[in-house]
């Protein structure tokens, strides 16, 4: 990363990051404030509704106690001699009065043990004026009363210990009505149960459904089933909220809040194990806060942009002169050491430019000195390598002449001496500068092969496949002879006729000169050891591998002159070995 970007990043870290942190903190505080406001608003609404609903339930239970506690009425209810229509007329005015006075009470039923239910309602007077009067009214309206006697709730109320405790239930018959049941007692005797059937408005009057703002207040029973929901079109939303409430405990004394998506649900328990729920979306308060938040975001954004621009300007001012020095370094990297001072300022960057110019001038002088010294060292090493080959070759040739003299082959000795003379003239004549064309090197190798064929009684043949484009390429002298010598001596050690192939070709701007034999090949272990040996410097002692002396010298000479890309490559299989010399061709 450049200094310019580092300075920009530093400015961002010092200025913009605190702004972002402040905005994150502001957003967090805003959310907490919104939640606190919503909870406070919900708590107020629920508390007021809970008081009103508890008062309404308490008032209705008091009405039930008054209805079931009248001594005169209890005498009539306990009188077994009165039954049916007679008993109904005696108590109808008393029990029908609550329904006539309170429009929310639809029906009052007295369920006496062992007797037919007595049912009173807002339409009881109309029923009495009909021909069959009470009988018809009871037949039509008291079917639910008969059913209630068989329900668990009736048995629960009839068998409870408390004499005036009411039990509330919503929708006993899958309807919207609210049912309240209380025991009827005369002294210690329990006569039955009184039941009030109330219109849903008993609870709905305290609920509301603001669909425009998505705000609702509704009541659930202890099983989390809705018993009072103002808007029937909102049941899907109510059911989704119920699932979130069901996972939490319901407090009885205070309000509890839980978040469900984008809503805040506040609820608390009241009498009868009912639950009041206040369903309020968060955005009802957030929408009042958003305008100010947008202004703050704009201010923070403009401030951040200003800091970024300031950082860019500062970094450009600082890095403009550093760029000049960087370009000078790139020039030095490309090999141009002729660098002069261009920045005349007296600050740190100006002094850096001055010292850099002095350093490159001195470096240029030292490189030239070292280059001349290196050339002299390389020339001396090449001469030493060349002289190291000559005694080795002479030793092998004298072995051949000695072997021929043992068998009395004087004519062949003459020819051998002539070829040997050609070999020495090649080494000491006008080509003694250390280079020759490939064709001259091949003629030298042909003279050497002639001598070896005499020594091996023509047990091998030689084939040449030379690319004409490579014949006049200048190569190092004595790079083929050691390779051919190893192929003959170590490759053709078995019986039978063998073949030696010398070829040259160009591939990817690299000239390849390859010597391939069909001999016994080299084992993997021996091949690995040989590759290690030829890559050792000629001046460093290695293991006593006679076959590697000449190869190592050739490889060292090539790498010394042309670099590590070039040199020898040895490949061998079960039968045959190929040694390839890689040399630069053209501009390679």
Description:
By secondary structure, the chain is of the alpha+beta class. Among the domains are: 69-202, PAS domain (Beta-Lactamase); 372-584, 2-Layer Sandwich (Heat Shock Protein 90), CATH 3.30.565. The chain has helices at 3-68, 71-78, 84-101, 124-128, 133-141, 143-149, 152-159, 201-204, 235-246, 283-333, 348-406, 410-428, 438-455, 481-491, 524-534, 548-562; strands spanning 105-112, 118-121, 167-170, 178-186, 189-198, 208-210, 215-220, 226-228, 256-260, 263-269, 275-281, 435-437, 460-466, 474-476, 498-507, 510-517, 567-572, 577-584. The strands form four sheets. Strands 6, 7, 8, 9, 10 and 11 form a six-stranded antiparallel beta sheet that branches. A five-stranded antiparallel beta sheet has the order 2-1-5-4-3, sandwiched between helices. α11 runs parallel beside α13. The radius of gyration is 57 Å and the shape is elongated. The model is unreliable at 124-141 and 542-547 (pLDDT under 50).
């Amino acid at each position: 990363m450049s200094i310019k970007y580092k300075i920009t990043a530093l400015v961002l870290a010092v200025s913009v990051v605190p702004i972002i942190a402040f905005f994150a903190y502001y957003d967090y505080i805003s959310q907490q404030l919104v939640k606190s406001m919503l909870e406070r608003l919900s708590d107020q609404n629920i508390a007021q509704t809970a008081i009103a609903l508890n008062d309404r339930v308490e008032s209705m239970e008091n009405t039930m106690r008054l209805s079931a506690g009248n001594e005169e009425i209890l005498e009539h209810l306990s009188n077994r001699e009165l039954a049916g229509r007679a008993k109904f007329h005696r108590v109808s005015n008393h029990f029908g009065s609550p329904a006539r006075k309170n429009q929310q009470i639809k029906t009052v039923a007295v369920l006496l043990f062992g007797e037919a239910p007595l049912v009173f309602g807002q339409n009881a007077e109309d029923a009495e004026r009909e021909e069959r009067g009470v009988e018809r009214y009871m037949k039509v309206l008291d079917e639910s009363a008969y059913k209630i006697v068989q329900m668990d709730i009736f048995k629960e109320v009839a068998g409870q210990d408390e004499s005036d405790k009411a039990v509330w239930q919503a929708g006993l018959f899958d309807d919207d009505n609210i049912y309240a049941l209380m025991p009827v007692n005369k002294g210690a005797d329990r006569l039955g149960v009184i039941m009030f059937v109330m219109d849903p408005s008993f609870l709905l009057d305290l609920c509301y459904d603001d669909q425009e703002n998505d705000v609702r207040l509704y009541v659930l029973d202890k099983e989390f089933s809705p018993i009072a929901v103002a808007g029937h079109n909102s049941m899907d939303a109510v059911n989704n909220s119920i699932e979130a409430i069901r996972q939490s405990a319901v407090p009885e004394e205070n309000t509890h809040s839980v978040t469900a998506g984008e809503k805040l649900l506040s609820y608390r328990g009241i009498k009868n194990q009912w639950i009041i729920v206040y369903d309020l979306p968060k955005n009802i308060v957030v929408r009042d806060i958003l305008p100010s938040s947008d202004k703050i975001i704009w201010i923070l954004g403009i401030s951040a942009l200003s800091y970024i621009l300031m950082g860019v300007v500062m970094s450009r001012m600082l890095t403009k002169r550093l760029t000049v020095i960087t370009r000078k370094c790139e020039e030095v990297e490309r090999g141009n050491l002729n660098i002069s001072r261009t920045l005349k300022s007296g600050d740190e960057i100006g002094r850096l430019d001055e010292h850099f110019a002095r350093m490159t001038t001195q470096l240029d002088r030292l490189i030239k000195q070292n280059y001349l010294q290196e050339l002299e060292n390389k020339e001396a090493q090449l001469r030493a390598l060349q002289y190291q080959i000559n005694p080795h070759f002479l030793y092998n040739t004298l072995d051949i002449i000695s072997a021929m003299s043992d068998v009395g082959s004087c004519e062949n000795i003459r020819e051998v001496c002539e070829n040997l003379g050609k070999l020495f003239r090649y080494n000491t004549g006008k080509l003694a500068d250390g280079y020759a064309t490939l064709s001259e090197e091949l003629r030298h190798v042909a003279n050497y092969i002639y001598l070896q064929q005499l020594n091996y009684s023509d047990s091998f043949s030689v084939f040449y496949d030379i690319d004409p484009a490579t014949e006049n390429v200048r190569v190092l002298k004595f790079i083929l002879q050691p390779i051919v010598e190893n192929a003959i001596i170590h490759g053709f050690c078995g019986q039978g006729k063998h073949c030696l192939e010398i070829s040259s070709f160009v591939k990817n701007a690299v000239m390849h000169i390859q010597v391939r034999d069909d001999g016994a090949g080299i084992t993997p272990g021996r091949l690995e050891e040989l590759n290690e040996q030829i890559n050792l410097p000629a001046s460093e002692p290695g293991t006593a591998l006679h076959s590697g002396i000449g190869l190592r010298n050739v490889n060292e000479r090539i790498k010394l002159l042309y670099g590590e890309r070039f040199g020898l490559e040895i490949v061998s299989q079960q039968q045959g070995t190929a040694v390839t010399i890689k040399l630069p061709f053209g501009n390679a």
